[in-house]
Design brief:
CATH architecture of the largest domain: 2-Layer Sandwich
CATH superfamily of the largest domain: Aconitase, domain 3
Number of helices: 15
Strand order of the largest sheet: 5-4-3-6-7
CATH topology of the largest domain: Aconitase, domain 3
Strand content: 15-25%
Structural class: alpha/beta
Shape: globular
Radius of gyration: 22 Å
Number of domains: 3
Oligomer: single chain
Number of strands: 19
Helix content: 25-40%
Largest sheet: 5 strands, parallel
Length: 470
């Protein structure tokens, strides 16, 4: 009798892409998709051209305009849609024409944030490997892909060879079990996880997110969950594909069609982790015990329930952690013991590759409908893609946001990062983004991370709010 070893999803995908053994724990992998965005892609293409190389498989390469584009309303009526990097965008466009890869330019109905458009167009698929010069590439692990961020030198190598050497990491599985309470979303789940295992808890692991809670999530919620895997130092974060995945991908522009779709389905159904497969580390989280989460410091691990108080560094015995907490509270201008819901906000920001999909905008609009945000608050909503923006407008969500007092922007990365725009400098922001680092959204900007519903609810009151009370 032949005994077959039980394998994890990660091991199956890794093995299917391993071309050659380079060292004891390092393999040369086949890379199925490469994404280039305007901030890093142009530099990579210049390096490639300077080296005298060309693209090995241009049909597997896709370029987007997202980081440098101006998202302010009415950009299509202005001559320059980019506040920064117009020359980089133009150069990338010309490179796409020269080398023959797909490029979603300003004005293209497919334009948007790279990690939003790749799944919504069906470019990223279960079991594929995908790389991009962006740390949040792990987002698309939400459709069952193995995806990670790379540097410019690695990008050049992939473009020239469609391969990349990778050291195989250990395997971790996080099981989220139970039904979430009203007002609790996937953003709350991932923030809670980071608070529990720490910002370095996933270092050296490929992390599978699983369990009954995850199986109940929509694909867009799964993308949010995987988006922040890198925030606890996991290079790879993913969810094995299932019928929810297949229904989401069916009929999308770049998804397989007809006979090839049926062949793909048969392969995809073999990918989930086998019963009895071994992991190097496992964690189980009771999702039904999680309340809405909000960060208070300068790392995603500085997080707590919305009904908690700002922690006191004196309560921790770890000296390095105590020092980091003291630094965080100094930067955030917070006093230990302050109730989270007593913290005022100046700006409510909904956008970024974490939470700017149509389901995110619907969740926020449900809170904002027939209400007005506080007069002291600036509300900003930046859809994650042109497709999301068009769909939201067809549903009238733009009118809900604007009637409530929010600005309704064009799609792009917007003010997730500083990007040379000082608009949020020295202000307190509650944000659906993924990083609350010092200066991330502007000089001296103090960012509190939360779900779209919590951001919208807080905008109404002018301070952090428990959305469950609305």
């Amino acid at each position: 009798m032949v005994v077959t070893e039980a394998l994890t999803f990660f091991d199956k995908v890794w093995t299917d892409h391993a071309i050659a053994k380079i060292a004891k724990n390092t393999d040369l992998l086949q890379i199925d998709r490469v994404f280039l965005h305007d901030l890093t892609g142009a530099a990579t293409l210049r390096q490639l051209e300077a080296s005298g190389r060309s693209l090995a498989y241009p049909q597997q390469v896709f370029g987007v305009v997202d980081h440098l584009i101006d998202t302010a309303p009415g950009r299509h009526s202005r001559q320059s849609p980019a506040k920064l990097g117009s020359s980089q965008i133009q150069w990338a466009k010309e490179a796409a024409q020269k080398y023959g890869f797909s490029f979603f330019d300003v004005g293209d109905r497919r334009q948007g944030i790279v990690h939003v458009v790749s799944p919504e167009l069906g470019i990223v698929l279960p079991g594929l490997t995908l790389v991009c010069g962006d740390s949040h590439t792990c987002t698309v692990g939400g459709v069952g892909a193995l995806a990670w961020g790379i540097g410019s030198t690695e990008s050049e190598h992939v473009l020239a060879t469609q391969t990349l050497a990778q050291e195989k990491p250990k395997r971790m599985r996080i099981l989220f079990e139970g039904k979430t309470a009203d007002g609790v979303f996937s953003k709350d789940l991932i923030l809670y996880l980071i608070g529990r295992i720490g910002a370095s808890g996933g270092g050296g692991y490929a992390v599978e997110l699983a369990g009954s809670t995850v199986r109940s999530l929509s694909i867009e919620a799964r993308l949010t969950l995987c988006n922040m895997a890198v925030e606890f130092s996991a290079k790879y974060g993913f969810i094995a594909p299932d019928d929810t995945t297949f229904q989401y991908l069916a009929g999308r522009e770049f998804s397989p069609k007809e006979l090839i779709w049926e062949q793909a389905l048969r392969y995809w159904r073999t990918l989930p982790t086998d019963e009895g497969a071994k992991f190097d580390r496992e964690e189980t989280i009771r999702s039904d015990r999680i309340a809405p989460q909000v960060t208070w410091g300068i790392s995603p691990q500085h997080v707590g329930s919305v009904d908690d108080r700002v922690p006191d560094p004196a309560d921790t015995s770890d000296l390095s952690e105590r020092a980091l907490m003291q630094k965080a509270l100094g930067y955030m201008q917070l006093i230990p013991g302050t109730p989270m819901q007593d913290i005022h906000i100046d700006v409510a920001y909904i956008g970024a590759c974490t939470n700017a999909r149509i389901s995110d905008l619907r969740a926020a609009a449900e809170i904002l409908r027939d209400r007005k945000i506080a007069p002291t608050v600036v509300g900003i909503c930046v859809p994650g893609s042109t497709q999301v923006k068009v769909e939201a407008e067809a549903e009238g969500l733009d009118k809900v946001f604007m009637a409530a007092g929010f600005e309704w922007h064009e799609s792009g990365c917007g003010l997730c990062g500083h990007m040379g725009n000082d608009r949020l400098s020295d202000r307190r922001v509650i944000s659906t983004t993924n990083r609350n680092f010092i200066g991330r959204q502007g000089i001296a900007t103090r960012t509190h991370l939360a779900s779209p519903a919590t951001v919208a609810a807080s905008a109404l009151k002018g301070h952090i709010v428990d959305v469950r009370k609305l």
